[in-house]
Amino acid sequence: MKQLLAIAHTRLTAIGTQSRHRKSRRMQEPTMPRCRLSAHRLIAGIFGTLLHATAAQAVIDQPMDEASARAMLNRYGYGADRTSLQATIGTTPRHYLERAIRGTPAYPPALVRQIAASPAAEPLDKLWPLYGPGGSERMEKRAAIQPPGSDIVRSEREVEGRQMLNAASANRLLESANSDNPGHEALLNFWLNHFSIHGLKQINKFLAADYARQMQRAMREDSFAALLKASFFHPAMQIYLDNNRSVATDSAFARQAERRGHQAGINENLARELLELHTLGVNGGYTQSDVQALARIITGAGVINNRLPEHALNAPGAERIGYFFFDPNRHDFGDKRLLGRSYPAGRGLDEIRQALDQLASHPQTAEHIAGKLARRFLADEPPAEVVKAMAAAFRNSGGRISATLAPLLDSPAFAESLKRPGKFKEPVDYILSAARAACDGQVIGNGQLLWRSAQDQGQAPFMRSTPDGYGSQEADWLSPPAIAKRIRLAQTLASRPVPLAAHASGGDLSACRPDISAVRAAVGSLSTETRAALAGLSPQDELTALLASPEFMRR
User: Fold this and answer.
1) What is the pTM (predicted TM-score) of this model?
2) Count of domains in the chain?
3) Listed residues 311, 333, 360: the one ending a domain
4) Residue 139 has pLDDT above 70, yes or no
5) Which domain holds residue 92?
6) Among candidates 41, 128, 33, which has minimal Cα distance to 320?
7) What is the mean pLDDT of residues 133-155?
């Protein structure tokens, strides 16, 4: 720290001295004739304009060289391999951003076939009749033949669900590791974490993969409101936060339940998390009255029940969106007031859509989303002026994600941050970047190894039990046990051949052999201490040390 301060002091002193010298020379220069002075001012003005244009282009619109491309792939991706590096060199950060949002990623054909054959690839239209609420004919037949007192059907369903969830989690890691569009994968994973679901909640084991696909489609719309609605209207979110059980106390459904001796009431879980986590943020200025109002607004929102009769599905005011279902018999049709805005009685699903639009466009949502994006892609404590510019862009663009991220990529702080390792990698960042460095463009097919590593390090996709999602700060992940787990993974990846190249069901283990020069390039510049530690090591030990180095732990 003292050395850095000394260097900064020297540079500032030099700049100050140069400034005083320039001022002294200006005072000693003879006065020019007015015509010559005007010409000089004109030339200076043109030159200054050109300089300003060049400076404005320097960050977000200037083509990236190899060093810049490698840094971008490390910060806004999962590390550079030979394929992604060559594809990024010569492009601009703006192009990288636009492609991340709107681009369709491509994966190696072998991986596409592997994922298509996994349980998680089954479409929801096939899964819902089998596993959706209300049961299925198949489950009823199984139950009819099981021994009295046995629970074989439930056990089989649990095993099938676990297999499907594990496959969905592994597939998300495989896609992130092998994509030709790393920025897309990083941003999609950000939104899946922001709108986090727990895959172990009820039938969400069967829904996680479809949830990721729906969020991916919404991301291409370049709209925060589209992401918010995609999350809300997916059955996985309704089930996770119990909104499918929320019933207006004066609704037809509640009255029927009361006659049968059951109680039905409003559940505030989803309403609270919509305000606290998804939109305004915990310090967004909402009150408990707003939570209660929003909970009333979103009553009736839920999921399709396989036992629901046809006349109920087609009742006046009922609406189906995929396997989301709005049931007017459970909705509160009274007047409400949310965040100062009145909602007249009797509007049903329309007021849910209006409320989501209100939350998406709220000024505090702009602040919350800008800050969270900046903490993920810039620094744990991003400069206030960058967050302010991002929030303004969010508001002015109507919540466009590309517009919100542009001030970050265009900021001097971001450009400066790319010159050296900064943010401590989250576990998945570390696992994927280590795998990509070790395999360097070769297909990574062993999803189970990736998934077990993510489980071991505490960040497997769809496995966060609380709705706040996984943390992105250094304090969330940096600890001696966490470092020990990373070192163990580095030792595994440094073995020859690298087991990541193998499909979980077997394959050619020899397909992926680490190239020490590629790993050195992936790690980048090393400190004197790290270089000293590497001296005299065997190639395998050097690979381990490089992947476990402090420099590689950061991005």
Assistant:
1) 0.87
2) 2
3) 360
4) no
5) 85-360
6) 128
7) 62
